[in-house]
Design goal:
Blueprint lengths: L13 E10 L13 E2 L7 H12 L5 H19 L21 E8 L2 E14 L4 H6 L8 H5 L11 H10 L8 E13 L2 E8 H13 L2 E3 L6 E8 L1
Parallel strand pairs: 2-5
Antiparallel strand pairs: 1-6, 1-8, 3-6, 4-5, 7-8
Length: about 230
């Protein structure tokens, strides 16, 4: 994992670079949480690029840690570099990138052709605090099986929602943190590569080049959407 120290260095040192993303498998680029059907975009957004590049850097921080880091970045930039604010925004799904303010996308931009589009079932990870979680997960702690079978039933011969909710809340630590729900998702097959022209912070560029020297593979959209990354100075 690349250290985050460069985030606190001069944000005004910039260079022009070319970013090339070559999909190695079908990708599904979704930037919102639409519900029952996840339609793919035809190209990555800036938030998608942030996700790819932070994945290359090996960063997997919690939302709470990201808030702390961004607060510290702004404090140092205000004091040391006279920066009034960070040019940043969260994605529609709450992703809070740490490098959003460190690069800008400029023309020219190359978008490849899409040779195929198809729908596939995708396991969506969800979390609930009631019987939905209990009914959605296929696994529970073995010690609960006998107790679950012996839950009292109502007049219709079924366990009531209230009883199921109480059972789940009492034993929440013995269930998986997430349950899965089959969801229809669109995937696209790309012929070629995405190419971006960037004005990028020099310290971020150097950190990415060090990381790419070790591995230039990442994923786009889902953990099945493997891509090859190249980053070069212009």
């Amino acid at each position: 994992m690349q250290e985050i120290q460069f985030l606190f260095e001069d944000p005004n040192e910039q260079i022009k670079a070319k970013l090339i993303i070559e999909p190695l498998a079908p990708v599904s680029i979704v930037s919102t949480m639409p519900g029952s059907y996840y339609k793919s975009q035809t190209s990555p957004t800036k938030h998608n690029l942030c996700g790819i590049l932070e994945n290359i850097l090996g960063w997997h921080f919690s939302l709470a840690d990201r808030r702390k880091i961004l607060k510290k970045i702004l404090q140092i930039h205000k004091k040391k570099y006279r920066v009034k604010s960070l040019n940043r925004e969260n994605s529609a799904v709450g992703y809070m990138p740490l490098i959003y303010h460190l690069f800008e996308i400029q023309p020219p931009y190359y978008k490849p052709a899409i040779s195929c589009q198809y729908n596939d079932l995708w396991k969506q990870c969800l979390k609930a605090d009631d019987k939905r979680h209990l009914g959605g997960t296929p696994n529970i702690d073995y010690s609960l099986i006998k107790e679950k079978v012996q839950l009292p039933k109502g007049e219709n011969g079924k366990v009531t929602d209230q009883t199921l909710n109480e059972f789940f809340k009492k034993n929440q630590s013995k269930f998986p943190q997430y349950y899965t729900s089959p969801t229809l998702r669109e995937f696209i097959v790309v012929e070629g590569f995405f190419r971006y022209c960037l004005m990028v912070n020099a310290h971020l560029f150097d950190a990415l080049k060090r990381a790419l020297a070790e591995s230039n593979s990442a994923y786009l959209g889902t953990n099945e959407g493997w891509v090859d990354i190249k980053l070069e100075k212009l």
